[in-house]
Design brief:
Order of helices and strands: HHHH
Distance between the termini: 72 Å
Oligomer: single chain
Number of helices: 4
Number of strands: 0
Number of domains: 1
């Protein structure tokens, strides 16, 4: 005998919750990619062993560490954003998040500028 299942608040907004989960997973994939690029960049720098200046070694280490920290930060922000959106969807008070997108765009731009600065040293 099967128990009768009750409709939950989440079941009213299935499409929105599934889209929220896909967005969360996309942020996690992005964070993993940023971490991976940072490690790859640092490892290639030191594996090649063609360092001309100590400053290039320092920048390579900064890129690796910064990418790791930013990746973990993105995962934390994505988790917080996911939970807030989940609550707002159920309460029918959802509004798009502009500050999170701006913060992540600025952080990504900083990472790219650091990568570019490495090439000129």
């Amino acid at each position: 005998m099967e128990k009768e299942k009750k409709a939950t608040v989440d079941s009213k907004y299935i499409q929105q919750h599934l889209a929220n989960e896909r967005t969360f997973l996309a942020w996690v994939r992005t964070a993993i990619a940023i971490i991976g690029v940072g490690f790859l960049f640092s490892n290639l720098h030191f594996t090649m062993g063609t360092s001309i200046a100590k400053i290039s070694d320092l920048i390579a280490v900064i890129i690796g560490v910064f990418s790791g920290v930013i990746g973990v930060g993105i995962i934390i922000l994505a988790t917080i954003s996911y939970l807030m959106k989940r609550r707002d969807i159920n309460n029918q008070t959802f509004t798009a998040s502009k500050p999170l997108v701006i913060i992540l765009a600025v952080i990504s731009s900083i990472i790219i500028l650091i990568y570019i600065s490495y090439n000129f040293i």
